[in-house]
Amino acid sequence: MVTLPRAPTCDLRYAMTPGIEEEGDTRRQLESTDFWRPIRSVGYPLEGQLKFGRVSSRMSDFVRDMRNHKIVPDVVPVPPDSLLHVVYPGGLRVNLGNVLTPTEVKHVPEVSWPEAEPSAYYTLILTDPDAPSRTAPKFREWHHWLVVNIPGLDLTKGDTLSDYIGAAPPRKTGLHRYVFLLYRQNEKIYFKESRLSNRSTQGRGKFSTHKFSEKYELGLPVAGNFFQAQFDDYVPKLYRQLGHFQNAF
C-alpha cells in the first residue's frame, strides 16, 4: 500500500476512477494517465484521504455498484472509501442494493465499521434520493435518519438530529434506493439543525447530503452502503404514524 506524501491545503482533491489500480503503481505512473479527476475542495490536506495500491474484488464491486445504481452522482459526487456494515433485526444485512421490504427495515439497524477510531466523531445519514419516485424525484432527497457527533461509532452516544424512519415508498412508485453514508468529523461540531421526530414528515424532504457535508466541512464519506425497497402493507401503517404523510409527496 502506497500513501500519498503530505500535500498542502488546496482547492482541488482527486479521486481515482475504479478498476485500474494495480499493486506497485507509483504516483508518477498514475499521474501520467488520465484517470485522476478533480472534485470539489473541502479545504484540508490530502494526506490520509487518498490511498492507492491493491484494491480487493470486494472494493471493486462496491465502487461499481455505487456507480451502477447512480448513488454517484445522485447523492454524492464520488463513492465512499469502504463498505459500512448495516444489519437489521433478524440478521438481515444491507448489501449494495439488495431488495428488502419496508416491513423488514421498520426498526433501527445495527451499524458498524471496522475502521472506526474510538477517539473520532462521526456523522451518519440515511437518505432516499427517489422521493416520490426515481423517475420524478422532485423531493430529492428525503432523509430518514441523521445522527451526528457519534463517538467511535457508538450510536447510543451520538446526537440524533432526525429520528429513524424506515423505508416508506409510496404505492406504484417502484424501487427506491436507501443510502447509508458515514462521515468522519474533524472534531465535535455544533449542528444548527432542527430536531425532527419520527411522528412527522416536517423538514425531511429536499435534503441534500452533499450540501449538508459541505456546510459542516465533513469532507467525503468514509463508508457507505444501500438497499432498495418498494411499497408493501406496512407502509400505510407508517403513514398513519407520521400523520399527513401522503401530503408530503
From TrEMBL:
This is Phosphatidylethanolamine-binding protein. Coiled coil: none annotated. It comes from the Eukaryota. SUPFAM superfamilies: PEBP-like. Belongs to the phosphatidylethanolamine-binding protein family.
